């Protein structure tokens, strides 16, 4: 029975509702900053816990989780006051400590006082001018690689197309310097030759040495931006100023001074940018990011070694973005902006600069020159002074032609009297990048047909014609058989065999038209034209295709490109495409054709592939002892120097070596840095606090720039197969020098335990010994005149070949 | 320390007060996964429960092992011919039995086992395994017994892999999955059915991993007896791995890295708060267990090696004269004679074994490449006995009438007179015929004294001291030219027709060049009366000398290192490491033309590609985990993540350390070098398989110590899916195995079309393939 409320007596036990829980109250969340301030866990310095723990230290109460998730997408709009204090914290840079901006000067005196810090670098720059320019014209002969780079500079003045393994910017600057100095470009720059009066070599050297001067202030400011103490900044500047290696290499018509300058500049821009990190997307931030990108572009356009410093910037950026990726307070929009800014400035911009330098290169070099054959036939046809336009247009049996491989990096079909040392031992067929009579081939009919007679009517070459190719100078026929090719073993060997009367059906090649650049698809091509028609040559018996794909032959083939016959038919493979380049036939009228311009991107890519191929071919020859070459292990401790010129008693002698103290000290500091880092990490693991977090960040940041920079510039040379020389270490040395300064700074000049006097004495010893050491060795860079034996005391290591043995 | 004044926060002070551990962070974290943490073991799928029982596990592992034995012993007598590297390792086993000294780049443990096995089955050591294809039955070699050893070890690897996975906390199905990748693998089967070292290497590698995992699981019970046992066993097995094959050093590196990581954690004051004394105890224990013990075991292999090989054999010539004199029957020991001035001798080059030779013919004036010679009398290297090899040693100082003063000693200046043409050996600054960088050697008439200085040579005994007498056969020396300091040298290049294709002799400017070593082969004649006493018949047999074991050991180690680096000659089946995981290349071990039989080492493509895919998934998971954690997300529950990082990470370490170094090596490399890594990748595959199918793992697996906090347990539950997938996978593996079985077992022979069918990848170079007729387009 249902109890009735009115009739029965009820005992009032209080309200019948269940006891109230916390759910009944509105949850008023604490502001996020409350937990940040109130929770004792948070007060643990973050550096004492690793990444994992740091994250876990956030309490997991439900309420707090709500805050945590709220905080991520907190609608800020300027109204929220609680989350503001977070960004209120002063930004602690691991680079240079930030000073408040100075008020605009009101008087000249104030302006001077504000800029008094720049006096020191100015003095260093003046000193650098003296060391770099002092007696710069002492040797009036072509010293060392001036023979190359002077010559390349001349090509720009003569506007003749040439080919070299280095990108063009540095050499264009050499050309520009020549232009400014009034050089006419007619000197040949033979190694060791004396400069005639027409070559203003002193002016050219001075202008290029200016880049060397620029290294010194850059070194100073980089040290400043890295947050080193004044003492250490002085040391960096002094070492850059007084290293005889850097000095020596800056004083000639070489690319190295520019390479070094732009390497320094890139590091400087990067450190400068790092110090702008507290104000992302500000004007300064953008300026230095763009500057970094530009200088990456410049340095790689001078020598590809610049890619190593690019890699350093790349690593720095990756680490930076990784940090930003972990910054949960940053909005996705900002994340993307950061990414986009880096991609635009550090990837796209440098590539544009690099390509622009090639564009300029092509624009300046508009005349035919020694490097023509590296490029596609169409490109060559557009060079002035080229006679391709005089070529008869249509090819016929009996024509004499050169055949150009269309693939990137392809050369001209070539043969010479030397035979294959392996395989069939018949005459070699290669691909060659220079113009030469040995590139000429005669188009002849098959053996069964009547021999070519100039009196019979012309027979134009068409698709599917079967012909014989006879090598001009030797008269042998292009031939292939089932012997494996010398390098690409899976292909058939191509050789030259027989003569005008001896031969067999293995000499037959079927001409297959691919297309014509001018006339379009295969169907529209009836007669084969020179330059524009792309062909393939199919071996009539074996069905394989004539191919040259940048495979370098060994020394017996003079490092030329292997030509083989590939059994697989891959119609898309441009390395099996050929076009007729030069064409001679007296019976045909000379052509008068305008050609299509070769597109820039194609030429750019073509040239770069060719550069890579030649660079890889620069491998040391085991049979030849190159007295100048050295191994990377010889460099850090200066095991060897390099004689830059002849060593006769009457010659001015230059010996490329470093100031020993700087090289030895910097190399030692690299080893020391690893030990120091290991010790610090061990001590941290045992919870010794040696530094506060900012100091530790700074220690790591500078150490990373110096060590990684060094490693990235050094390790690739260990792996590289090509010949290496001492001057390859010069950009690398900069990072070693930074490390030496950093460690001295860390242990002496920025030490809190040492008194000023100790630091001053230590600085005096360092600076003094560098100066003395420089003074002792200065003649190797300024030039040694007279018999070398008169200059005593230079042989600090027995392995240096300074004196005659 | 603790009573530092708080107001002066100085640097370099040690934070003594460890933050109180009142917030148990790991437990806090696990509360996210409450449901899983308190998972009831009884709530698992019945199949899972059934499989996890001891008996089920036992049955599974027994079946796997039985299958492994069956697959590895099937037709083990096929082929009854020498296959691939049996040429080497069979020969070495024979040498142990005949006790003749040999030299090899690999340490002796596995070869000693083969020797033991051979001795056990009655092999007399007479057969020398000269060529691939030599018949065993014709030569009465009990080869089956010798092949049984790797087959047993290879079969036992399968249960060890199973045990590793079980110990690491994976379900029975997962453990069986990993084991089956090895079980059904053609490459592992082919490699362990033959007299090769890899089966031993892989078996001991897996045992090392197993013991290390057992040791690691006892980390909360340090210094207990069991802990010590597994520590020592890890060291012992590690030594066996290293002793089997030189690649075993990578296993040592793996364990080394794992131990360093482990020690780094113990050092971490934040984690456990251990004292330094405690750390040093751990350090010492590991140093004993993982350095001292393995080293002693490794040394003992060599001790046995030297103790067994007491007779002279083919390896003599690699060793130093002092070493050779410890071997009985060594020619050097028997016939080494001291050389006197005016003896007529023959000089022989140590590496290429040619005699220093000269004949009346002259160098052509102009070489093919246009360089000019001196047109002097040719000096060449000649491989055969000839009177033109005879040279007389002429003193450059006054000799006493008799006595010790007439002996040729280290550092003496001598002239060499070519007896037949009566001219002195000479070198000068003219480029040699083949090498522009090296000096030409020629001779100069005896009576013409105009070039006396160019005929002077220092005779420098290798590692010789002043006063050492030059001995025939045992005295290795360099001949250094007096005025130009070049060393008499030769290389294997032949001169052209004008020198009868004899070997070129030239002067090498690197006077320290190791290959410029010569020795005196025979004393032909002497002006001394006691000459007869020094010829062979009159000499008393000498006793072998003894040499300190450690010096022997050191010398052999050095030589092994040098020769290992020197194996750079190209080999048709050598492949580059990047091809290995994808199984792009194999090795042809053996072929028989008549019956079209062949053995081609290639892995089971299903298994290998599963491993590669798993590896990439694993790397992907870790990458995703890193990225997610960077963004403050924590998608993987802690126990599972720890398993992925620590346990699977260890497998990954094994894989990487056994693989990556090959990229840096320039020696010839073969796909079987990848097998240890493949073993590790099979375990990673199991782990990834488990990760995909289940959100839990068996946790914790470590043995609980007295002070360990009780962790809430959880259990893996793979349900019914896993066994079904496993069975399907095994069937696929088996089908592929059987399809390729003719290539693995070398029988039966295949027709051309059958071979073509098995050539799944175009990079496999199988023999007896049928010609594909070219399609005419």
Automatic annotation (TrEMBL), chain A:
Top EC class per UniProt?
transferase
Q: Where is this region: Disordered?
A: 1-103
Task: Give GO cellular component annotations, separated by semicolons.
Answer: endoplasmic reticulum membrane
Q: What is its main location?
A: endoplasmic reticulum
Provide the protein's localization. Endoplasmic reticulum membrane
GO function terms (MF aspect): dolichyl-phosphate-mannose-protein mannosyltransferase activity
SMART domains (UniProt xref): MIR
Per UniProt, residues of the MIR domain are 392-446, 458-514, 525-583
Catalytic activity field: a di-trans,poly-cis-dolichyl beta-D-mannosyl phosphate + L-threonyl-[protein] = 3-O-(alpha-D-mannosyl)-L-threonyl-[protein] + a di-trans,poly-cis-dolichyl phosphate + H(+); a di-trans,poly-cis-dolichyl beta-D-mannosyl phosphate + L-seryl-[protein] = 3-O-(alpha-D-mannosyl)-L-seryl-[protein] + a di-trans,poly-cis-dolichyl phosphate + H(+)
The family database entries (Pfam families) matched by this protein are listed as: MIR (PF02815), PMT (PF02366), PMT_4TMC (PF16192)
UniProt keywords (A-Z) are:
Endoplasmic reticulum, Glycosyltransferase, Membrane, Repeat, Transferase, Transmembrane, Transmembrane helix
Q: How does it sit in the membrane?
A: Multi-pass membrane protein
Give the EC number(s) under which this enzyme is classified. Answer: 2.4.1.109
Classification via InterPro entries: ArnT-like_N, MIR_dom_sf, MIR_motif, PMT-like, PMT_4TMC
Q: Which parts of the chain are coiled coil?
A: none
Q: Where are the transmembrane segments?
A: 202-222, 228-246, 285-318, 339-358, 661-682, 702-723, 729-748, 760-777
- Name the pathway: Protein modification; protein glycosylation
Known role: Transfers mannose from Dol-P-mannose to Ser or Thr residues on proteins.
Q: Which family does it belong to?
A: Belongs to the glycosyltransferase 39 family.
Q: What is this protein called?
A: Dolichyl-phosphate-mannose--protein mannosyltransferase
Source organism of the structure:
Roridomyces roridus
UniProtKB/TrEMBL annotation, chain B:
Superkingdom, natural source:
Eukaryota
Q: Which SMART domains match?
A: MIR
Can you give the residue ranges of the MIR domain? 336-396, 405-462, 467-523
Entry GO terms, CC: endoplasmic reticulum membrane
Kindly provide the name given to this protein in its UniProt entry.
Dolichyl-phosphate-mannose--protein mannosyltransferase
Catalytic activity, reaction form: a di-trans,poly-cis-dolichyl beta-D-mannosyl phosphate + L-seryl-[protein] = 3-O-(alpha-D-mannosyl)-L-seryl-[protein] + a di-trans,poly-cis-dolichyl phosphate + H(+); a di-trans,poly-cis-dolichyl beta-D-mannosyl phosphate + L-threonyl-[protein] = 3-O-(alpha-D-mannosyl)-L-threonyl-[protein] + a di-trans,poly-cis-dolichyl phosphate + H(+)
The answer to whether the entry has keyword Lyase is no
The species this protein was found in: Roridomyces roridus
Broad class of the protein's primary localization: endoplasmic reticulum
